[in-house]
Amino acid sequence: MTHEPGQTLYIDGQWRPAESGRVFPVTDPATGDVIGQAADGDATDTRAAIAAADRALPAWSGATAYERAAVLAKADALMRERRKDLAALMTREQGKPLKASMNEVAYAADFLAWFAEEAKRIGGVTIPSARADQRFVTMRQPVGVVAAITPWNYPISMLTRKLAPAIAAGCTSVLKPADQTPLCAVQLLADAGVPAGVVNLVTTTRPGEVGDALLESPVVRKLTFTGSTAVGKMLAAKAGATLKRVSVELGGHAPFIVFPDADPVRAAKGAALVKFLNTGQACISPNRIYVHRSVYDTFVATLEQRIAALRVGRGDHDGVSIGPLIDERAVAKMEAQVLDARTRGARVVAGGERLQVDGLDGTTFFAPTLLADVTPDMLISREETFGPIAAVTPFDDEDEVVARANDTEYGLAAYVYTNDLSRAIRVTEKLRFGMVGVNDINPTSAAAPFGGIKASGLGREGGYEGIDEYLDTKLVGISV
Ligand code: NAP
């Protein structure tokens, strides 16, 4: 890393302290240890970052697509080369098991690789005119300075999913990462080697102040945000005042439906893998598991066995598959959802409580939990959990389960297990979600469009669509 401790603002290619001199500690959620200091940037620092991005814009948007692609390709190679170090830092800062961190770094690098190629495919079209003496062509041009605000749960891949298409399109950016995971962002920028001003970083514990400075600036032409629905809606509304382009990736409440013709054992294995990924702190995590009554007992018993095999602990210890939750607030939410479900008649088949892991001072470990006989009136059926609780509900009828799955303000991911092709297509068409996994627990890739509908967001990240969010179309009419 090229910066001194506490000098984690990256503005105009320079590492700097906050103008105020303030810093904040960054902790390891597994041990409670302080692992670093970050600069606590404010509105003044943010305005400096915006000015740097604005100054860099003419040269960067004027660079050829091949030059922009080369920067991304180099960043991709460096990220893969330094994968282990980046993963180790992520595990310390965020808590996820080392293997999951390694996977995330690879996924993050995939966005650099994908958009390095997409940079070369930004083209326009020619359009026939009704006038014989006229020609139409379109140009696709960068939207300008981008504000990127990211969450802590995927502290590297959520950044490259935004910065890579911005860089490819010829935009310049100001990034504000989550205050729990600023060091991953710092390391990412230290390694990436982008030209001065193209990406600027403001670490902070003052999200409102920094967010307002970004959103009030007329220079910033786009907001890209990943985080909670409440904050996303508020930021999108503020961005409306200066009519910025907006893409927001927000919360989810994924249904996971197991039909009677599916193999309940395979479905339960899949549910265990995707539910407890990242300690359940994933926007595409199944929150409502609906299982047909005829296979319900087999499914619950298999899921219980899989949960019994999960080891909770510090992410850098061998064999650990579940790390800590990010903070106390997250543990309190787990406890409230379990208490509510228990009071309303759910069975706690496994877990259900906070854990103390031997030898660790971290207090945010929660036992992987299985709740059976969950009903629609329970909190967990309505509210995103964002933690390691699998909530299972029996159902009898296809129409009934589709209606229940759609009965939510969210619309990010959904999962369907069935061996009946007609049913798979029929149900997929009816599910009001942006992504559907059919007998598949990972419908994501840098090459595929990620995103939700309704309260889960606007716009798509990755895939062919991902770069469109960073481009404006200019129409040129030519009289000949
Ligand atoms: P969050 O509280 O909304 O925070 C997300 C980011 O917004 C953080 O950088 C946060 O800063 C910042 N922020 C908070 N208040 C702000 C304000 N007033 N102005 C400007 N920025 C502000 O969400 P989170 O708890 O970190 O993340 C979990 C949520 O993200 C879940 O709902 C999850 O489903 C969603 N998520 C969605 C996707 C997707 O692709 N759809 C992917 C991952 C996560 P601080 O950290 O400093 O507060």
TrEMBL record:
Residue span(s) of domain Aldehyde dehydrogenase: 15-476
UniProt entry keywords in alphabetical sequence:
Oxidoreductase
GO MF entry, a single one? succinate-semialdehyde dehydrogenase (NAD+) activity
One GO biological process this protein is involved in is: gamma-aminobutyric acid catabolic process
**Which Pfam families is this protein grouped with?**
Aldedh
UniProt lists the family membership as follows: Belongs to the aldehyde dehydrogenase family.
| Name of this chain's protein | Succinate-semialdehyde dehydrogenase/glutarate-semialdehyde dehydrogenase
